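Weekly puzzle thread! Below is a chain. First person to post its structure in token form gets bragging rights.
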Amino acid sequence: MDGFLLINKPKGLTSHDVVFKIKKKLHVDKIGHTGTLDPFACGLLILCLGKATKLAYMFQDSDKTYEGTIVFGKHYDTYDTTGQVIDEKQVAVNQDELIKAMQSLKGTYQQLPPMYSAIKVDGQKLYQLARKGLDVKRDTREVQIYEFDMKSEFNENQFDFYTSVSKGTYIRSLAVDLAEKLNTFAALSSLNRLSIGSYNLKDALTIEEVKPEHLISLNDFFKPYPKIALNDYMIKLVKNGVYLDERQTTINTPFIVTDEKNQMIAFYDVIGLNKYKPILTF
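Winning reply:
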């Protein structure tokens, strides 16, 4: 089984838990995922099976959309309400001020990731250090907030939201940064990932529902990609992992190599000007 599964991850499971359950259910040894979803969160998780595990990196640059709930008044070590309260500040916030603060976060800004994240510092994941009670210096990263809108009235110190963001954005940090603009604290109390790139939660299945026939095959995944046909001599080299250059193509996007019978042979990615690296063979 080589391809992708769209899973609707339930609350309470880690992304690794989902991988383990799907491995057991479908009897597949090699499975990975394209981006961690916190245990308290639910929503779209894309799994890579078999040869497709080599393609997980292709989703790292994808934009994502989420919906969730932000609650004001307390600051948690995890930036969500599953953590420990480390500070409190009850500040009256009105809806007009809230909308204005949300609008001010749209666009590009430098975001500080939470300590409870999978980012590595000196070879250790931040959440591993956080569990030891450490709070280490971490660099901000440039993120882009395309949309950040209210989905409910601001009531009892909380509201529902929808957001569309660039790669690397932490929605937990977005909640904390929003509160800072209002001189108070806030945290996520719920989060649901709706999309990753062009893949949508509405097309995902639960762990219980998913079956082998729901696999998005590599053939289907690569249909939109440009294809370059090579002769039999070059196909033998391609199967042995040869790098390609301007002698074969000058394309500037990832592509599929086919033989002269239009059979897919390999997927190549661009690594420089007219330089192409084989990622996988079919």
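Puzzle host: Confirmed. Bonus trivia for everyone else. The chain has three domains: 3-62+198-220, 67-193, 223-281.
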